[in-house]
Amino acid sequence: MNALLERIDNKTAIIGIFGLGYVGIPLGVSVTKAGFSVVGFDVVHQRVEQLNNGVSPIKHISDSDIVQMSNSGFEATTDFSRVSECDALIICVPTPLNKTREPDLGIVATAMDSILPFMREGQLLSLESTTWPGTTRQVLLPYIEKAGFSVGENYYLVYSPEREDPGNQNYTTETIPKVIGGHTNECLTVGSALYGTFIETVVPVSSTEASELVKLLENIHRSVNIGLVNEMKIVADAMGLDIFEIINAAKTKPFGFTAYYPGPGIGGHCIPVDPFYLTWKAREYGLHTHFIELAGEINASMPGYVVDKTVRALNEVGKSLKGARVLALGIAYKRDIDDMRESPSVYVMELLREWGAEVAYCDPNVPVFPNMRDHKFNLKSVELNPVTIAGFDAVILLTDHSDFDYDLIGKHASVLVDTRGKFEVGSDRVTRA
């Protein structure tokens, strides 16, 4: 342990990062900035070549950030034999749900299968991927033991959940406090030492299970509150009230209230997925998380609600959704990013298509609809101008990007369905959804 701590302290430790996406790339930027050399591992050859050529594959990380990271000791590779070079291995690969909404740790297992032949004594292994409590102990620990090492003595194992928030201008990887749990006290000491070199505040907890549950609580808290405000939106609409006015007035209370805002659903890798990790694990203990599951159901129903409001808005002007030309504004899952994971906008687009609408989209951050596992659209982002806007029977604001010209949109859209509260209610052309 002392030798590894010394290499961490003098910045000679080599850090391996597995999964070069929305978590792994910002992590690499921060780790190299702190003075460490980094080997980044990914199975996608195009992603590896892109990074080694100084090109950023994600919007909120610039090409100059990638170049600076490379100049500071970063190299991407598909060669997993280089695991043996690394003193610390940080796994931040996706942990999706399968078709029956159960946890799918297949990508984590594949990463560990690739790591196993090249593990060596004295390494630290950290899992950052969101998962159910017990994963680190029950899934990762057996790999280490299979390699012949004793955790806490000649190998170290921790869980430290990622807390990335793409596009957040107020917090970076370095400034967001980092929760960490170790398999043993020695593991926690080593893991805290490493993360403490590039994270301002490290928050130790009693175990890897505690750290895993912290991550789930954070995102379930958001899911439940977003579900609440989405349900309140429906109630307010039925009463002829503006939910955004209600929220903005309520948040003037200086205590006991936190403002959450409604929308067309929830997106990103965390909030739509994480609650199901806990509900799945809770069943092992004979428990049913009704409250959490209800919030998930409400949020999952929002794309249908938006389409229903669009149908009603078109009916008011004597048009049917079938055959209508509909423009989706914003298809990333939140403002000013290019991340499409679990975006509710895509579910809205699919429902519109199923109902017979001709669907197009505009998103300044997503010029071409990406190749997605479960969603297929052969589309490119259309340009917003008076002619194109007026040429659609309905325009639906789904993601409120800063780059949109809202005055232009409001002036030329014949039917405008607003899921983000950007347009004044009262106009016959504006429908809140």
Q: Characterize the biggest β-sheet.
A: 8 strands, mixed
Strand order of the largest sheet: 3-2-1-4-5-6-7-8
The proportion of residues forming helix, as a percent range, comes to 25-40%
CATH-derived architecture of the largest domain: 3-Layer(aba) Sandwich
Mean pLDDT: 95
Secondary structure layout:
Blueprint: H1 2-9, E1 14-18, H2 24-33, E2 37-41, H3 45-52, H4 63-71, E3 74-77, E4 88-91, H5 106-115, E5 124-127, H6 135-146, E6 156-159, E7 178-182, H7 185-195, E8 202-205, H8 208-238, H9 243-250, H10 274-283, H11 290-316, E9 325-329, H12 344-354, E10 358-362, H13 386-390, E11 394-397, H14 406-412, E12 416-418, E13 430-432
Parallel strand pairs: 1-2, 1-4, 2-3, 4-5, 5-6, 7-8, 9-10, 9-11, 11-12, 12-13
Antiparallel strand pairs: 6-7
Helix pairs in contact: 2-4, 8-10, 8-11, 11-12
Tell me briefly what this model is.
The protein has 433 residues and is α/β, with parallel strands linked by helices. The protein is 39% helix and 13% strand.
Keywords:
about 425 residues; alpha/beta; Rossmann fold; 2 domains; eight-stranded mixed beta sheet; five-stranded parallel beta sheet; 14 helices; 13 strands; about 40% helix; about 15% strand
